[in-house]
Amino acid sequence: MTLAEESITKPVFLVGMPASGKTTLGLQVALRLRKHGKPCVFIDLDQVIEDMAGSTVVELFAESEAVFRQIEQQALQQVVESTLDFSVPVVIACGGGVVECEANRQILRGQCCIYLDCAVPVLAKRAVQQGGRPLLSGIVGVAGNSQRMEAEMASILQRRRSYYEEVSEAVLEVGVDSLEKDVINLLELISIMSKGRL
Ligand SMILES: Nc1ncnc2c1ncn2[C@@H]1O[C@H](COP(=O)(O)OP(=O)(O)O)[C@@H](O)[C@H]1O
Ligand SMILES: O=C(O)C1=C[C@@H](OP(=O)(O)O)[C@@H](O)[C@H](O)C1
Ligand SMILES: [Mg+2]
């Protein structure tokens, strides 16, 4: 049986640092499976939050991080409940800070979670280039800020690493090789994890 013929059998949650590739890799995995005739739903938790709130992540953070985290908690709860009865495989990209809340960690511990582990310099480089993350917005787009971004990322990772590890059943190192390689590795890991469970 080829990879594409195997199915994801339980919702798969991707966790990890901002810019580690959760949204990109989650979507690519779903598209790849669909291309091979396997239906697969991709959900980005930040998108669910925006739909629920009727505001963007940036607007919510502008109110306060606490406001954002509260809606993030509700969104996670809703996604877990609504995907319970899904008959098709689901891949869910969480926001990087979802693990900051104990209630979320408790939910995620009961799910099939994969931690996308990415080196701090790679995260910092991407975050400086991409922008758009309110948590890091003071640093983005300012010339010569790569070092500051690295320090900030390292500090956030220090706070969150044990949380990512604690909620996850598997860790995938990403950002070393090409995006394509990361997609293939993630597909492979999901396929192995699905078989092991059922
Ligand atoms: N494996 C990869 N190789 C190269 N670039 C990547 C890879 N994964 C993600 N990216 C890029 O990194 C940036 C952040 O990715 P994103 O999926 O938004 O991360 P996250 O959802 O974890 O915050 C995007 O510009 C994306 O194109
Ligand atoms: O790390 C964080 O606290 C956040 C990460 C973001 O998602 P990504 O990890 O997808 O960038 C988004 O949820 C919000 O800006 C907060
Ligand atoms: Mg994302």
Automatic annotation (TrEMBL):
SUPFAM superfamilies: P-loop containing nucleoside triphosphate hydrolases. It is found in: Cytoplasm. Its cofactor is Mg(2+). Its main location: cytoplasm. ATP binds at A19, S20, G21, K22, T23, T24, R133. It catalyses: shikimate + ATP = 3-phosphoshikimate + ADP + H(+). It holds the Pfam family SKI. It is an enzyme of class 2 (transferase). Signal peptide: none annotated. Keywords: Amino-acid biosynthesis, Aromatic amino acid biosynthesis, ATP-binding, Cytoplasm, Kinase, Magnesium, Metal-binding, Nucleotide-binding, Transferase. Its EC number is 2.7.1.71. InterPro entries: P-loop_NTPase, Shikimate/glucono_kinase, Shikimate_kinase/TSH1. Catalyzes the specific phosphorylation of the 3-hydroxyl group of shikimic acid using ATP as a cosubstrate. Belongs to the shikimate kinase family. This is Shikimate kinase. It comes from Gleimia coleocanis DSM 15436. The gene is aroK.
